[in-house]
Design a protein that fits this description.
Strand content: 5-15%
CATH architecture of the largest domain: 3-Layer(aba) Sandwich
Number of domains: 2
Structural class: alpha/beta
Distance between the termini: 6 Å
Number of strands: 15
CATH superfamily of the largest domain: Type I PLP-dependent aspartate aminotransferase-like (Major domain)
Helix content: 40-55%
Largest sheet: 7 strands, mixed
Shape: globular
Bound molecules: D-serine
Radius of gyration: 22 Å
Strand order of the largest sheet: 4-10-9-8-7-5-6
């Protein structure tokens, strides 16, 4: 599969081989990750990467784009149909530039915008202070309540008080279904653009297991590599409602992407998006999406049964947020690293009202899209939940400490003591055996 790389660049091939083995024999549980089909990989590795195509189909700044035009139009048509929208731009390099383009199209620098607070589960590009979106716009964040659900009373109050130009609904760590309808009502009342960022749940929307925002939002953005199971990329969609509010919205979005923010589109990635959208249109994809959610609920039940606390007490979607505060604050790093040693990949994450910090948060975010892609189901989730709970309990007594020096020392001590721990070794072996029963990229060798 990488024969030529092996011959020409064995050093690189060695790293790639190790990464393939890591993916094959570990449990990938970061909820924003997934395994693309070999067809998507083929499109990504194609000669389409050679082309420059600034502009849009039939309106390019370079010659030789007659076939690239067809590829891009195919991706656009497939997205329009699947998401029930009027206008699609498939050129964003990924989710962050897609979101930035929405600001460029709808706001002027300094305008007020509203999005979910990052530590509450929102995204950097929804106005967080260190992102360009929080620096160039007046960001008024909303929060979740102590039960972990969006504080909609606060959303209404802030929107009426600040009259934002743009309101975002979307998140990276929110385990519940989004109330698109309620957001649309308040956005309409204050005459704001309403943008939904469905990066995490795009596949669930297509699969019909999460409500679609197409009836409620003006703009929908998404990445294409999460539950949608495509290549790393982004899309911006304008709905019928969006064009009614602003008939020029599609054109404004296109101009914001090119020439506003980007140069030539990545045509090999556009082809891979077309492949993924073709796959997502098949009936099997609906079953896949439903299974992601069933698996996640089952994983959540198993964790709870084994004494682990979850933000909001469970999930409606593909992800869970473990609240580690019953064991103390800032425990995420210990749990993430111990799980890594057992070949279970998750990420440390803030939880709402986290008593620690973003780098040393008190939660773990995990989910089921990738495990579901390798055909694991509820019985496997039950087992995996019990392994994760065992590992959490194993490391729950480790303390971070308050000063920087104490933290460095404590983490080093933790790493020394935990490396090669018998329980982690035992679970790592069990993980490997489980992975062999659910092969990934079967027959693919690097
Ligand atoms: N990095 C993505 C995630 O993990 O959710 C969001 O951009």
């Amino acid at each position: 599969m990488i024969e030529k790389i092996k011959l020409q660049d064995p050093e690189l091939a060695g790293f790639m081989k190790k990464e393939l083995a890591r993916q094959k024999f570990g449990l990938e549980m970061i909820p924003s990750e997934n395994f693309v089909s070999e067809t998507v990989l083929e499109a990504l590795g194609s000669v389409l990467t050679n082309k420059y195509s600034e502009g849009y189909p039939k309106k390019r700044y370079y010659g030789g784009n007659e076939f690239i035009d067809e590829v891009e139009m195919l991706a656009i048509e497939r997205a329009k149909k699947l998401f029930n929208v009027e206008h699609v731009n498939v050129q964003p390099y990924s989710g962050s530039p897609a979101n930035l383009a929405v600001y460029l199209a709808c706001c002027k620098p300094g305008d007020t915008i509203m999005g979910m607070n990052l530590p509450d589960g929102g995204h950097l590009t929804h106005g967080w202070k260190v992102s360009a979106t929080g620096m160039f716009y007046n960001s008024v964040p909303y929060h979740v309540k102590s039960d972990g659900y969006i504080d909609f009373e606060e959303v209404k109050k802030l929107a009426r008080e600040h009259r934002p130009k743009l309101i975002w609904c979307g998140a990276t760590a929110y385990p519940r279904e989004f109330p698109f309808e309620e957001f649309a009502e308040i956005a309409d009342e204050v005459d704001a653009y309403f943008a939904t960022d469905i990066a995490h749940i795009a596949g669930l929307v297509i699969g019909g297991v999460h409500k679609s925002p197409s009836e409620y939002a003006h703009i929908i953005t998404t990445t294409t590599h999460k539950t949608l199971r495509g290549p790393r990329g982004g899309m911006i969609m304008v709905t019928k409602k969006g064009l009614l509010k602003d008939p020029e919205l599609g054109m404004k979005i296109d101009r914001a992407i090119f020439p506003g923010l980007q140069g030539g589109p990545h045509d090999h990635k556009t082809a891979a998006i077309a492949v993924a959208l073709g796959e997502a249109a098949k009936p099997e994809f609906k079953e896949y999406a439903a299974q992601i959610v069933m698996n996640c609920k089952s994983l959540g039940e198993s964790l709870k049964k084994n004494g682990i606390k979850l933000v909001t007490g469970g999930t409606d979607n593909h992800l869970l947020l473990i609240d580690l505060t019953p064991f103390g604050k800032g425990k995420g790093i210990f749990v993430q690293e111990a799980l890594d040693m057992a070949a279970i990949t998750t990420n440390k994450n803030t939880i709402p009202a986290d008593p620690s910090s973003a780098y040393y948060p008190s939660g773990i975010r995990l989910g089921t899209p990738a495990l579901t892609s390798r055909n694991m189901k509820e019985p496997e989730m039950k087992t995996i939940g019990s392994w994760i709970a065992e590992i959490i309990k194993l490391v729950s007594d480790y303390e971070l400490g308050d000063s920087k020096d104490e933290r460095i020392e404590n983490i080093e001590k933790f790493r020394e003591e935990i490396a090669g721990h018998a329980l982690l070794k035992e679970i790592r072996e069990k993980v490997k055996e489980l992975c062999k029963r659910f092969p990934l990229y079967d027959g693919m060798e690097y």
